């Protein structure tokens, strides 16, 4: 009986043998059963469903399908590779993947183990720096939620040479001075009778370990090109001041490192119109006439989304009185509602300022008769 270990070895061998055939694989989107506009979540979900039922450890007869599904997922789950695949096809994406892997062949089982919790890869490509933008929005935007498009300038790997900087692979040669190491050892005399060896960057290839006989005509040997793309930012209702939205792999590309992230940080004015924000709550000030303060009133506040919030009092309202109106504050994001006691919105607090009128003689006489003799109590 063949053991699991033997099946695994046979499956890996079979995958290696059929690798050249996979180059003529079906459209990656078709392989995963998704549309060309599928989201990252849809791509992961499709791979999860297919990979579980094709793993050669349990289904040796499906090794070829497993390889095809994994290759499609590796490409479409990487923003840079997906972009190259959409524009230039599978061969171009594979060349870029090979550069990112630094010549090491990828194991499709590593993808499976990482995806289903089997541990991260030991050799990971370094990541480039991120870029941070500030999005200035209003308090109304944070209440209602807002979607907008922002333009983002970055460098992308040259699609003509795939980041090599050379006209073709035939024009890339190992440096004859350092034999590809990128450095040289020189002897330097510090003082009479005292000599030391020093390792320095190779001046011929500038540390690259290779030279280019003919540079790429598109990027002129720079390996990258300036590019402008658009980022769709969707601010959820109730987002906090300083909330950050991260777009992975959307920063500058480089043939030597993975692209960094673009971070959009929300900045808002704490007060828009008559509303003020404190956490999940909103505050609003109403100016009352003396009549309304004494006899009561029936007002309403127009909220950011246009709905009316009734503010009613039938008794005396003292200066500085604060009315709490439940669930009329800021929306509370779904993942914070449990901590907020299940509320979907914060509260609205209305404070009142009584504006005393200027009185003419007749009004003073009437009030004097109403209240009687003024008080002379010592304070």
TrEMBL record:
From which domain of life does this come?
Answer: Eukaryota
Q: Which InterPro entries has this protein been placed in? A: DnaJ_C, DnaJ_domain, DnaJ_domain_CS, DNJA1/2-like, HSP40/DnaJ_pept-bd, HSP_DnaJ_Cys-rich_dom, HSP_DnaJ_Cys-rich_dom_sf, J_dom_sf
For this protein, the record's PROSITE patterns field holds: DNAJ_1 (PS00636), DNAJ_2 (PS50076), ZF_CR (PS51188)
The CR-type domain covers 145-228
Sorted keywords for this record are: Chaperone, Metal-binding, Repeat, Signal, Zinc, Zinc-finger
List residues of the J domain.
27-89
Q: Which GO terms describe its molecular function?
A: Hsp70 protein binding; unfolded protein binding; zinc ion binding
Write the signal peptide boundaries: 1-24
Pfam families per the UniProt record, alphabetical: DnaJ, DnaJ_C, DnaJ_CXXCXGXG
What are the start-end ranges of the zinc fingers (CR-type)?
Answer: 145-228
Q: What are the recorded Gene Ontology BP terms?
A: protein folding
- PANTHER family to which the protein is assigned, alphabetical: DNAJ-LIKE-2, ISOFORM A-RELATED (PTHR43888)
Query: What protein name is recorded for this chain?
Result: Uncharacterized protein
User: Which species expresses this protein natively?
Assistant: Malassezia pachydermatis
